[in-house]
Amino acid sequence: MRAVRIHGREDVRLEEIERPEPESGEVLIEVTGAGICGTDAAFYRHGIDLVPPSQEARWPIVLGHEFSGRVAAVGEGVEALAVDELVASGAGVSCGECPRCREGHTNLCRRYWTAGVHRDGGLAEFVAVPAATCEPTAPHGVSGDAIGLAQPMAIAVHAVARGNPEAGQRALIVGAGGIGAFATWAAVQGGLEVTVCDRDADRLGIAAELGAARTALADDRPLEQLLADAGEFDLVYEMTGAADPLLAALRLVRPAGRVVAVGVQAKPPTLDLVALTAREIELVGTMAHVRAADLPRALDLLAARPEGWADVAPRVLSLDDVAAAALPAMAAGESAQIKSLVDPRLVESRAYRV
């Protein structure tokens, strides 16, 4: 089968490799939709150095931790899924036995690993993953290319939930990229009044279509100045991973409000801990998603937009496109669309299909 494999820094190849077979507890998925994201671009730039030394990674690997498709075969002991069933995979695998797993925090499992990061992922014609990572899509009413967006939507669902939001609260989302766009939809559907800030006017237009009550086009001014007339926010979600917006978030949130640091900081920022303490601000993190709670909710949210997601992912790419152009362009910050979807069955790219 054909697969996009990463061998090292800036070394991604479209290769012919052996099709996997599902082991006990696994399913073999014929991939119909996969995504590439900032994590894949980071691996392209930095290689295996991004994987902590304490984690086992079987490189070279097939990239792709956002994928969905048709169950082509089931391994021994798999009863919950059937051949030909359409599923979305969360890609993250937890042990189910450690203290965090028993608490329900499966995303913080001691032995957590991810398909497409530590082992072969979904930028291939087929991928074998534990059945427990998969959610059938039919009960949620989602179809077409939207299924391939389930994993990043689950990331956004988890991030929004980390703010403990309540309907009617005012939320600021800083950054309207892939996760920011999905977080906007999740927050709006949860009853929040959402303001979105970004440097890209087109992305802000999409945020407005997703239900943002207000958008703010960022420039060289500090965010506090840009949003001076917006009032205080109950919640601020910092999506960019840049230090200045995180510092601004602590000033824009109301006393006893919450700031969720979604974007991963390149290096530890200097924070105003005096303001955090004196104003009783809660600064919380978010990591991946909890498959049992977030993936089903993600599919429901994708289905709740009947017009589909062509504004977020207008073109669906082939594997040839990924290796030759899309991934290097994303790594260089030159991606032409918010989300890049891939259908490994394609010879040439095509438009998004509902």
Protein described:
The protein has 354 residues and is α/β, with parallel strands linked by helices. It has two domains: 2-154 and 289-351, Medium-chain alcohol dehydrogenases, catalytic domain (Quinone Oxidoreductase, Chain A, domain 1, Alpha-Beta Complex); 163-285, 3-Layer(aba) Sandwich (Rossmann fold). 26% of the residues lie in helices and 26% in strands. The protein is built from ten helices and 19 strands. The protein has helices at residues 38-46, 99-103, 150-161, 178-189, 201-209, 223-226, 243-252, 273-278, 291-303, 319-331; strands spanning 2-8, 11-16, 26-36, 61-62, 66-74, 86-89, 92-93, 113-114, 126-130, 134-136, 170-174, 193-198, 214-217, 233-238, 253-261, 282-285, 315-317, 340-342, 350-351. The strands form four sheets. Strands 3, 5, 6, 9, 10, 17, 18 and 19 form an eight-stranded mixed beta sheet that branches. A six-stranded parallel beta sheet has the order 13-12-11-14-15-16, with helices on both faces. β1 (2-8) and β2 form a beta hairpin. α1 (38-46) packs across α10. The longest helix has 13 residues, at 291-303. The mean pLDDT is 96.
